Hints:
Layout lengths: L4 H13 L3 H37 L2 H7 L1 H26 L16 H9 L2 H9 L11 H32 L2 H24 L2
Amino acid sequence: MDVNLTGFLPALLPVALSPGASFTLAMNSALAGGRSGLVRTLVGTALGIYTHALLIGLGVTAVLVASPAMFGVLKVAGTLYLLWLGVQLIRSGLKADAKDFSGGEGAITLKSAWLANVLNPKAIVFYLTVVSQFAGRQGDITDYLVLASVHIVVMVAWLIVVSYLLIFSASKADPVKIKKTVNIAGGALLIIFSILAAFH
């Protein structure tokens, strides 16, 4: 194993800490489903990151990106999926009363969090162009899994802190109003992310 963790962390932090699809989904899940909702999203996103590590370690990602047609299909699929998730969050946010937010389910499932990460073209390109630089000379699956694990630890720690700050804020104000606002704003952000992904 010959990974460059010292160089990887500075390259990772701006990506892991910046608001994006995973951040938006985690905030929604924390408010709509509490701890269990947040855990579902974090586990789904972590599995997505490990999926990218496995695919690039096996050489699948390089083949995919090398084919404009195949990458184009994936890009369209990712764009449409983020768009669909955004609409789902907005619909959830438009629900009328408190009972609609009870039950701890929310709009985001483990599977949807996984798909949102796996189908994200930016995540694919990040692992191919950035992560691969720190995987050592061999760049085998083990190296990529180690780097993915570091990515997951940083991401999970950050999202837990922000999510619990949001939950605390909601408990001190009108929780239903805050949940509606976060869902609608989060849905709008996912729609924006999907549009940006389509043109990059």
